[in-house]
Amino acid sequence: MPGVPTISLHDFDARRDEIIQQLMDAATNVGFFALSNHSIPLSDVQSAFSLSREFFALEDETKAKTPLNGKNAGWEKNTQVRPSTGTADQKESMQLQFSRMEGLWPSDEDVPGFRSRAEKFMGQIQALLDHKYTFPTNHTPSQPPRGLKDRPSAAPLFFCLSVKVMECFAEGLGLPLDTFTTGTVSPPGFADSQSTFRLLHYHSTENKIFGPNFWRAGAHADFDVLTMLFQRDGEGGLEVCPGRKVVGDFGMGTEWFPVEARMDQIVCNIGDQLMRWSDDRLKSTYHRVRLPEGSESRGPRYSIAFFNQARTDVVIQGPQKKYPPVTGGEFIAQALARNRMQSAEVAQAAAKLDADRVASEVHFVPTHLQAVTA
Ligand SMILES: O=C(O)CCC(=O)C(=O)O
Ligand SMILES: [Fe+2]
Questions:
Q1: Given pLDDT bands bounded at 50, 70 and 90, which one contains residue 368?
Q2: Residue 183 counted as domain residue
Q3: What values do phi and psi take at 68, rounded to 5?
Q4: What is the rounded average pLDDT for all residues in the chain?
Q5: Which atom of ligand 1 is nearest to the CA of 238?
Q6: Alpha-carbon span 184 to 333, nearest angstrom
Q7: What range(s) does the Fe2OG dioxygenase domain occupy (predicted)?
Q8: Is 289 close to ligand 1, i.e. is its CB under 6 Å away?
Q9: Is 366 inside any structural domain?
Q10: Which domain holds residue 193?
């Protein structure tokens, strides 16, 4: 696929140095890459999509029993307005987290086994750290890099996929190996994780006519450390715009590359938190999901995203101290405030220009990454 390299994780331990090099190249130049031969079996990805389809097939009134809360979990439909468009994304989504989910799990009567099925898959992407794996929440980037062999033996870590990849980035940047992993993964008993698992359902566009500025997901960059996205074969539409530094607001007017939709690969992108944590070396990149065009299927599109987020109290600061320190909680709060202001301005301006272009139900609801007060 042009623009977005595919990186194979086969023989991970033996090829670790080569993989780190490839990840660093992709993250530095494109901000996006697809992982093949990763550790998550295809049958488990298929099961996760079955879970998603079972949930979204419920009546809206049933899904509304677990509405999007102020803490970034729950269900929303047609409410996410991107600052880049001023219109609502043509989708519904269900967001889940590792903690603070009281009253937000769909019941077994509505979707049998929803919680255990979701948590099993979430754990395959990002598991909880073993309780012995205790690191200070405030990392000191001046610490010398620690290699794999130096991991304290009393600190075993479940080798889930996101930990593997984030350790590679830490090592590639010359930071302590656990910088982004203990920075994002909570030990048991801690409710400070902000990582978010998001099931997405983009509506069928059969017999629908849209104005010029409607998108399945308007152009945006993610706020997190690392996003991992699962797609179904042939359900395309995701596009990326590499080169954030050289493009104008929201990456408009420059070249967009399609990303192939393959269920056997995981599309990953660097988010704003990792860009800042790396003093801008790794690039958070604009992306969007367009509506079907021409002879393409007008059917629905399902995708699943996992956002690896900095924990609320972890300090994000790069080794060169290019930016002042900020905690994971503050970072999200600031990003949301900016988003909210821009969304409101853009929606207002668009409404003045052409009222029909702004869906009547549009109102701002916090995006998938929301400030969390522990
Ligand atoms: O569904 C997709 O392909 C992308 C979703 C996305 O970019 C997001 O939710 O941040
Ligand atoms: Fe995104």
A1: very low
A2: yes
A3: -55, 125
A4: 82
A5: 3
A6: 16
A7: 192-310
A8: yes
A9: no
A10: 6-130+154-349
For the Cβ of 167 lying below 6 angstroms from any atom of ligand 1, the answer is: no
Whole-structure pTM value: 0.86
Give distance in angstroms: CA of 222 to centre of ligand 1: 9
Question: Could you tell me the CATH number of the domain that includes residue 122?
Answer: 2.60.120.330
Torsion angle in degrees (nearest 10) through CA of 180, 182, 183, 186:
130
Q: How far is the CA of 305 from the centre of ligand 1 (A)?
A: 7
What's the structural domain count of the chain?
1
Res 187: pLDDT: 72
Q: Write the pLDDT tens digit of every residue in 139-166.
A: 343 333 344 444 443 344 445 889 889 9
The per-residue DSSP string of 118-166 comes to HHHHHHHHSPPPPTT----SS--TTSPP--GGGS-TT------HHHHHH
ipTM over 0.95: yes
Q: Ligand 1 atom closest to Cα of 93?
A: 9
If one residue of 72, 200, 262 were mutated to test the ligand 1 pocket, choosing by the most ligand atoms within 8 A of its CB, it would be: 200
Tell me if 373 is assigned to some domain: no
Residue 103 resides in a domain: yes
Q: What's the pLDDT at 159?
A: 59
